[in-house]
Amino acid sequence: MIAFDLWLAFVTTVLILMSTPGPSHILMLSNSLGVGFKKSLATALGDLTANAFQIFLASLGIVSLFHSFPNFFIGIKWLGVAYLTYLGVKLFRSQSLQHLDESKPTQGLRSLFLQGLITSLVNPKAVLFFAALLPQFIDPTQPSAQQFFALGVTYILIDGCFLSFYGRTAEWISQNLNFRLERRLGQITGVFVIGAACLLALKGMGGS
User: Fold this and answer.
1) Is residue 10 domain-resident?
2) Which stretches of the chain drop beneath a pLDDT of 70?
3) In this structure, are residues 58 and 134 in contact, taking their beta carbons and an 8 Å threshold?
4) Per the count of CB atoms within 10 A, which of 6, 93, 130, 178 is most buried?
5) Within 13 Å and on the Cβ side, how many CA atoms surround 47?
6) Considering the domain boundaries, does residue 168 fall inside one?
């Protein structure tokens, strides 16, 4: 297993890196603001599922693909930016979330999960981020697979805590909005989603 001092250094590094919210955190805040914390957990699950997949790819050393086909992965990223922008504009154009049809896919758990999953997966540089970060905390004298697993689980747990914090904070805000702001809740959440798209567009190296 991983040495405690290496693990502690990894935790400290991740906490510092997550001190600034990324696109997935902003999306979690937005969805929790709009549909509540419990339903927005589907978004968090989608994000963490994508992170687990990206960490797995990094542990396999599948990084050369990103260097061999950079334009393909850049294209995926911009599709993600377009997707989030579409969601944000759709929410912004609604006078209130109460006017949205609850039966529409944007309100379903499956759609919320896919939003979190896609937002993370369309950031191809996340694999490069994990490939650059994780080996720094690997002891070469110990089995690497177990260490990658321990660091990966640690990262996902920390990210889950941050996502829950943003979700709970957003839910508290939505519950304490005055009536005028509540009527504009759709526009508020739309702005947050568009902000997540902007962060993804500007994002260089990052896991969430």
Assistant:
1) no
2) 62-70, 72-73, 76-77, 80, 94-107, 124, 177-186, 200, 203-208
3) yes
4) 130
5) 29
6) yes
* Torsion angle of the four alpha carbons 127, 130, 132, 134, in this order, in degrees rounded to the nearest 10: -150
Range of the domain at 155: 23-202
Exposure string for 6-30, b = 16+ CB within 10 A, e = fewer: bbeebbeebeebbeebbbbbbbbbb
pTM, 2 dp: 0.75
**What contacts 24+ positions apart, CB below 8 Å, involve 102-111?**
107/35, 109/39, 109/42, 110/42
Residue 137 domain flag: yes
CA dihedral angle for residue 185, residue 111, residue 157, residue 133, rounded to 10 degrees: -100
Residues counted in the chain: 208
Return the beta strands (E) in 54-155 as ranges: none
> How much is the pLDDT for 161?
96
Does residue 208 lie in a domain region?
no
> By the 8 A CB rule, do 200 and 23 touch?
yes
Burial, 122: exposed, middle or buried (Cβ in 10 Å; 0-12, 13-18, 19+)? buried
- For residue 119, the one-letter residue type is T
88 token code pair:
């944000």
